[in-house]
């Protein structure tokens, strides 16, 4: 194990978030664009992807790797694509609104744009076929470290209680340098099927 890996393994979640977010933001515009384009190539080759109809991603922020090139290609292939919408209420949960190149957006309370769709048009995560999640760090077992707001954990909580979990397929997206040897996980963490970076697809369970 390198010294850097050892230090990251000893870091608290707060420290690890700080390090990884700084690294992401340090990437140049060209580096981000190249990473997003390469990510798109890997995403569109995922096993089973062609059978899906409803895909959700996110608007890249804070140096996150960008799924939009892949999402726009999926829209061009006749698929429906969705973005997160913060659900009303005290619990930090997400719903998902469809978008395309003509959609209107409005900023949520964090300043992140959300598609403007009616409440009856917003989907639950369980109504999606594939969900591409952002992350701050991941480990070699496929565990994910998020921003700490708990939005995805609360949104996907129902999946942990399913005996047979069919959908959505959960795939984390990240830059390859966001991988660490090991993350401490909590009992509310939902396991991912895999993680895609600019280097390729890391599969953890089928």
UniProtKB/TrEMBL annotation:
Belongs to the 5-formyltetrahydrofolate cyclo-ligase family. GO terms for biological process: folic acid-containing compound biosynthetic process; tetrahydrofolate interconversion. GO terms for molecular function: 5-formyltetrahydrofolate cyclo-ligase activity; ATP binding. This is 5-formyltetrahydrofolate cyclo-ligase. InterPro entries: FTHF_cligase, FTHF_cligase-like_sf, NagB/RpiA_transferase-like. PANTHER family: 5-FORMYLTETRAHYDROFOLATE CYCLO-LIGASE, ATPASE INHIBITOR/5-FORMYLTETRAHYDROFOLATE CYCLO-LIGASE. It comes from marine metagenome. Pfam families: 5-FTHF_cyc-lig. Keywords: ATP-binding, Nucleotide-binding. Signal peptide: none annotated.
